[in-house]
Amino acid sequence: MGSGSLSDITAGVDWCIENKCKYDIHILSLSLGSAASEDEGPMVQAVNQAWAEGIIVCAAAGNDGPNEENISSPGICQKIITVGQHIIISLFKQKGCSR
Questions:
Q1: 48: CB partners within 8 A, 6+ apart
Q2: How much is the pLDDT for 37?
Q3: CA distances from 34 to 23, 25, 96 (A)
Q4: In angstroms, rounded to a whole number, what is the distance separating the alpha carbons of residues 62 and 4?
Q5: Residue 66: is the preceding peptide bond cis (ω within 30°)?
Q6: Where are the alpha helices (DSSP H) in the chain?
Q7: 56, 67, 72, 88 — which has fewest CB within 10 A?
């Protein structure tokens, strides 16, 4: 797993907002997450601002699922698109032809 500071990530989102016209930025894809809380922390505030400025934001749901209330921040933000995966494993027994 990678690591980074919250302040660097929010600064990156802010940079994208400030430069969206210059670099034709329309989408932010954030494959990251941190512990979520009930309040709107700095990451949620940053992605909310990006969305308000017309940038589509997609974020990972996190790696703590599939139980309830374990989506990471900024995936908890109600204004953005949160992406997750639920793996279902099915076992099939295939029978051959018999004569």
A1: 40, 77, 79, 80
A2: 65
A3: 28, 24, 49
A4: 16
A5: yes
A6: 6-18, 42-52
A7: 88
Q: Report whether 44 contacts 75 (CB < 8 A).
A: no
Burial 63-98 (b: 16+ CB within 10 A, else e): eeeeeeeebbbbbbbeebebeeeeeeeeeeeeeeee
* Number of helical H runs and strand E runs in the chain: 2, 3
End-to-end CA distance of the chain: 54
Rounded Cα–Cα distance for residues 45 and 41 (Å): 6
Distance CA 84, CA 37 (A): 19
| 56-76 pLDDT per residue, tens | 999 888 776 666 667 777 877
Q: Residues 6 or more apart from 18 whose CB is under 8 A from it?
A: none
